[in-house]
Amino acid sequence: MKEIAVLILLAMTSSAAVTTPPKYKSITWEKFNKTGPQLKQLGHLAVRHARDIASSPWSVGCETLDRDYGDFSQYKDYVGELGVKHARIQSGWAKTEKQKGIYDFAWLDTIVSGLKGQGVQPWVCLCYGNPLYKSEIDLGAGIFTAEETMTGWRNYVEATVTHYKDSVTRWEIWNEPSHSADPAAYANLMIQASKAIRKVQPKATIMGFTVHGSFSGGEFKFPRAVFEVLKEKGELECIDIVTYHPYTSNPDSFYAKFDEFQNLLKAYNPRLKLYQGESGCPSILEWGHALNNYPWTEYSQAKWNMRRMAGDWARNIETSIFTIVDLNYGFMLQSFGLLRADLNHKIIYKRPSFYGVQHMAAFFDSTVQPTGILAYESDAKRKMEVAGFRKGDTPVVMAWFNDQIPDDTLTFDSITLTIKGVVFKDPVYVEMITGRVYNLEKDVWKVTEGNTSFAGLPMWDSPIMLAERAQVLLRESEKHEKEIK
User: Fold this and answer.
1) Nearest to 413 by CA among 459, 379, 466
2) CA within 20 to 30 Å of 370's CA: 128, 138, 181, 215, which one?
3) pLDDT tens across 46-88, in order?
4) Distance from C-alpha of 152 to C-alpha of 191, rounded to nearest angstrom
5) Domain tally for the chain?
6) Measured distance CA(154)–CA(165) in Å, rounded
7) Whether residue 455 is found in the same domain as residue 356
């Protein structure tokens, strides 16, 4: 009998071993790393944890935790590893006040302290209603106007700011109100919330509007109408920053409207700043949410996010990438995540976009400042963006094809490129998604009359970086190998 029991136990153990789910890997990441420019590789760009970066313009989305579409405990450590210095979270009135006048911030405390422990500063979107006060909790819910609800809202905002006044300094008022809100109702909500915030935290930075859309038609109609109400009421100073959510299939196409949007702000209040508060790309074809009904992949997603970050910082715009992880909305698992997750919120793997954002965050901290879009000459058959930056007293350039939606190809065109007004002394080439650093032989580039020209430069529809060799730090293991050689 004992022998039979042992055999049964062995069979069960063997069966369990066979049926254990395999550890998943990212095929797309492997393919990114098997292709690339035909240059001599020197190593990989060093990455940094958020704790090791003093400041930067980058934020990542940690939204929808108020409705449990994600699980912070599953991805907390990845936020610090990503290297961004800020994270957008939502406050969750309905989740915090389940009995009138009683606020339980325990769930949100875990998130705020968890982010700060990673070296990441949270900023909070105060948004969505509370059924206790006859208001709805989802995206697209109208702005309430009933006095009882508004009183409950003011009290909740004041309680939240009081609770986090030593931890949070940036507060955003509502998420994408232009979905369905009356401009006058939103203007009133913003005024009421702003007063409640400044009552507790006079030096708080207050953000508002969260204008969303493709910016190809009449999307500025809503902010203009809200501004008119604020002007009439003498409340144009109630916020400091206007946030916007530009979802365009070609991430570069928004910038044609950027100056118009900025001029709109300045006409009402020259002190206002713009902040790209939420923007990202799916990694599969989706039937709902932004950028739906297009066959996105993990290849095009990575390129899209790189172009959004590079294009924004070239224009001195702080940026938040949506989002850190796939979100389970119940009717669908949204695929915008830098981390792929399953239906139970567990992390499956890091997408190529995670690594790309990590490389951007590691190099482009606040010591690398934008100098603007640069003039260039090229034999490239496609339109390009060439963006300039300065790190200390040295130039940095990012360039990419910007005329089409990012595609799935992993091949590079060989082009000539002359960058006007930029003088390199010893440049290297960096592909920003994989972070691979390449040597540029001295016979392929030259400086003439204050311009730098490159021959046979690999170019594609995602940002590549040109920077001085001394400014590009390699991973520690590769740095050591280079030193002992």
Assistant:
1) 459
2) 215
3) 999 999 999 999 999 999 999 999 999 999 999 999 999 999 9
4) 15
5) 2
6) 16
7) no
Residues 403 and 256 in one domain: no
Residue ranges in 201-289 assigned as alpha helix (H):
221-233, 255-268
Name the E strands within 384-431.
Answer: 384-391, 394-401, 413-419, 427-431
Query: Which residues partner with 273 through β-bridges?
Result: 241
> Which tens digit of pLDDT belongs to each residue from 343-390?
999 999 999 999 999 999 999 999 999 999 999 999 999 999 999 999
One domain, residues 128 and 257: yes
Structural domain of residue 452, as residue ranges? 371-477
- Read off the pTM: 0.94
Give the list of residues 6+ apart from residue 8 with CB closer than 8 angstroms, or none. Answer: none
Q: DSSP string of 10-33?
A: HHHHHHHHHHSPPPP--HHHHHHH
Q: Is residue 5 part of a domain?
A: no
Pairing of strands 121-126, 86-90: parallel
Place of tokens 């009359």: 449
15 lies in some domain: no
SS3 467: strand
Give the Cα separation of 312 and 309 in Å (integer): 5
